[in-house]
Amino acid sequence: MSTSTSNSVAAASAAVSASRARRSVINKKLVLTLVAWTIALVMFFPIFWMILTSFKTEAEAIATPPSLFFTPSVEGYIEIQARADYFKYALNSVVISLGATLLALLIAIPSAYSMAFLPTKRTQGTLLWMLSTKMLPSVGVLLPVYLIFRDLGLLDSRTGLIIIYMLMNLPIVVWMLYTFFKDIPKDILEAGRMDGASTLQEIFHLLLPLTLPGIASTGLLCVILSWNEAFWSLNLTTSNAAPLTAYIASFSSPEGLFWAKLSAASTLAIAPILIFGWMTQKQMVRGLTFGAVK
Amino acid sequence: MRTRASGRTVGGLRTLSLQAPAVSLLLMWMLVPLVMTLWFSFQRYNLMMPSVSGFAGVDNYYYLLTDPSLWTAMGNTLLLVGWVLVATVVGGTLLAVLLQQEFFGRGVARLFVIAPFFIMPTVSALVWKNMMMHPVNGILAWVAGLFGLPAIDWFASLPLTSIVIIVTWQWLPFAVLILLTAIQSLDDDQVEAARMDGAGPVAIFFYITLPHLKRAISVVVMIEMIFLLTIFAEIFVTTSGGPGLASTNLAYLIYIRALLDFDVGGASAGGVIAIILANIVAFFLVRTVAKNLEN
C-alpha cells in the first residue's frame, strides 16, 4: 500500500517535472521564435517596404505616417512599362549572366582540375594571385577597357559584358571549383586513367558528375554576382545591351520623389534574381563554403 | 629515373595546357589595362584640354600624393572595410547561432534573413536612401518621431556611417550563409559532452562554436574584403562621396578624377596607387587566410 502510494507519488512528480521540462522547452522555443522572427523581419523590411510601396499611388508612397493599408494599384507598373520596356532589359540580364557564367565555368574547370590533381609548387601562388586580381578597383582600369572596347566594337554589346563578367568572376569560380575538386579522392581518377580515359574524358565522365552540386552552387553564385553588377554595365552599355542595373539607374536620378514608380522598377529588377536565389538557396549554401567546412 | 622525369614533364605540360586559358586571360585582364594605366599616368592628358599633352613625368603622382583628398579617401576606404567586416562577422556569427536553433517557421525566417544578398547594390542603395533614411518621409525618421526624437539627416550628418549601414545590410546575409553552413557541421556529441560537464551556453559558444568557425570566419573576411575594397555603387547612388569628401573612398576618388574632372592622367595615377594598395592588402591578407585554410 505504502509502496504503491510512494510509487504513484514518484510517478506523479516525475510527470510534473517532465511536463515542466517540456513546458520550459516550449517556452524556450517561443522566445527563440520571437527573437529570430523579429530580426528576420527587420532584415527583410526594406525589401518588403519597397514591394509594398510599388503598389501605392505617389501620394500614399510619401505619406507620413507611412500608410500600411491602402487600395493596391498597379499604376506605377503601367507607367514605367510605358517609359522603358522592362522585358528588353530583363532579357539582356538573363543572356549576359548566363553567358558569363557558362563561359567562366568552361575556362575554370580545366584550370581547377589541374590545380587540384596536378599540383605544383606554384599552384598555391597562382591561386592567390588570381584572387588578388579581384581586389583591383574596376574604376582604375575603366578608361583602358573603354578604349579597347571602343576599338574592338564591343561597346554596348552583350558579348562585351559577357567577357567582362567572365573575367570578373573567374578567380572566384576557379577557387570554388578547386575546393570541390580537392575533396575527390585521386584514386577514382587514377582508376579512370587505367581504363584508358583521356584527360577530357576524365573530366567529363568522372569529375563533373561527382562534383555536380559544387559546380551548381558555383554557377549560381556567378549568376547572382553578374546579375547585380552595376559598374561595368553602366559604363559600357547605353541601350542595346543594357541590363536591369542600367534600367534601374534610368529611374534613379531625375525621378525625385516618385517613390512608387521607383519601387515598381526596383521590384521588377530584383524579382527574378530573388526568386531564383530563394529557390536555389539550399543548393547554393552547400557550396558557398570555399573549403571552409571540412 | 627516366620515366619519372618524363612523367614530370608530361604532367607539367598537362598542367600548362589546362591552366593556360584561365591564367592567360587573367594575365591579359590585369596586364593590358595596367600597362595602359601606367602609360597614361605619366602623361598630361585631360579630355577638357586636348591641346595640353605630352610627357608629364611624375607630376600626376606628385599632385595626387600631396593632395590631402587621397589620404582622406584611403582613410575612408579602411574605415568602411573595417567597420563592415566587424559588423558582419560579429552579427553573422550570432545570427548563425540563432538561426541554427529550433523555432517555429525557421525555414522562412532564414529566407528572409538571406534575401538582401540577392538585391542589386544600386537597388538597395536607392531603397535605403529614399524610403528608409530620407529625413522627412523615411521610415527611420518616422520611427524616431514615435519616440519623440529629432529625425536624422543621415547622408548629410553621418555619411560614412550610413554607407556602412547599407553595406552591412547587404553583406550580413553572406556571412550568415557561410557561418550557418559551418555551424551545421559542428559535432553534436562534443557540445553534449561539454554540457554534461556543466558548461553553460556562453562557455560552449566561446570554447567550442567559435573555434569551430575559425576557418569559415577567415573565408568570410577574405571574400568580403575583396568586394568591400572596391565599393562603388552604394556611394554613387547615395552620397556621391560627400558632403565634401566625407564618404569618398579610393574607388570613388578615381571615378571623380576620371569622369568628372576628365583628368585621365591624374585618374590613372590614382588607379596605379589603388592597384599597389590592393596588392599590399592582398599579399598580407590572402597569405594569412590561406595559411589558416591549409591547417
UniProtKB/TrEMBL annotation, chain B:
Main location: membrane
Single GO cellular component term: plasma membrane
Compartment(s) of residence: Cell membrane
Positions of the ABC transmembrane type-1 domain: 74-285
Entry annotated with the keyword Cell membrane: yes
GO biological process per UniProt: transmembrane transport
Cross-referenced Pfam families: BPD_transp_1 (PF00528)
TM segment ranges: 21-42, 78-99, 111-127, 139-156, 163-183, 216-237, 266-286
Membrane topology: Multi-pass membrane protein
Family: Belongs to the binding-protein-dependent transport system permease family.
Protein name: Sugar ABC transporter permease
